[in-house]
Amino acid sequence: MNGPLAPYAGRLADGIAALGLTLPQAIVDKLLAYGELLLKWNRVYNLTAIRNPQEVVTHHLLDSLAVLPLVGNLRTLADIGSGGGLPGIPLSIVRDGLVVNSVETVNKKATFQQQAKIELQLGHFTVINKRVEQVQPDSLSGGAAEGVISRAFSSLADFARLSGHLVAEGGALYAMKGVHPADELAALPAGWIVAEVHPLTVPGLDAERHLLVLRRQPG
Ligand SMILES: C[S@@+](CC[C@H](N)C(=O)[O-])C[C@H]1O[C@@H](n2cnc3c(N)ncnc32)[C@H](O)[C@@H]1O
User: Fold this and answer.
1) Reduced to 3 states, what is the DSSP secondary structure of residue 186?
2) How far apart are CA 36 and CA 26, in angstroms?
3) Which CATH number characterizes residue 129's domain?
4) Domain-located, residue 206
5) Is 42 part of any domain?
């Protein structure tokens, strides 16, 4: 490959190793190809504020992969407010069998994701161009999802309110956050609890990251 991400291929490989992941070279190449597509389409479609190739590797690719140890064993995932396909597309690339439904309301962003699905041959990745509150669980590929994830989508309370209906029984909401959002916890809607808080380290990213797991209150 000789596109704008080529100089950062080593950084991606080092980051993947630092996350404790071992990925075939073909998968690493696919991650780079996705990053290049994002940069290319961003010039016209304004998909993400990040335009620096190095930051595509750290802030988008590695940041998305950092949650893999916590969601990588799920069978079905819905990514809400996925923008240019984050974290859903990187997760779909590295976990071929994972069924990912990617929900994004803005047409041009969903169109980009559909194009990425075709170019990267993501067989289990489905784009849903709708507002999440209008999506019914049975319209998701695989039905209600074991994991419903979002990054930079909304407050925890709105995430639970708007997306909670898409979580399968026994499943969870996964909120990717920067600093631990202590002030958002008190505003959670009734019926949801924060079951787990995982601090995450993203290689090459000098910023706090947390994954919060929300489950339905028992009883
Ligand atoms: C800040 S962006 C984050 C995009 C991506 N998750 C990321 O981390 O780069 C939030 C996205 O949520 C989408 N969005 C906002 N409200 C939505 C809703 N009700 N249903 C689906 N998507 C929504 C926006 O169009 C936008 O693309």
Assistant:
1) coil
2) 15
3) 3.40.50.150
4) yes
5) no
Closest CA to 74 of 202, 200, 168: 168
Give, using CA atoms, the residue closest to atom 18 of ligand 1. Answer: 131
pLDDT tens digits, 79-120: 999 999 999 999 999 998 999 999 999 999 999 999 999 999
Domain that holds residue 175: 58-216
| Annotated binding-site ranges for S-adenosyl-L-methionine | 81, 86, 132-133, 151
Position 25 in a domain: no
Q: Which segments in the chain show pLDDT lower than 70?
A: none
State how many domains the chain has.
1
Counting Cβ atoms within 10 Å, is residue 110 exposed (0-12), middle (13-18) or buried (19+)?
buried
ipTM: 0.99
What global pTM score does this model have?
A: 0.98
Ligand 1 site residues, Cβ closer than 6 angstroms: 48, 81-83, 86, 103-106, 109, 131-133, 151-153, 162
Domain annotation covers residue 14? no
Task: Compute the distance from residue 156 Cα to the ligand 1 centre, in Å.
Answer: 14
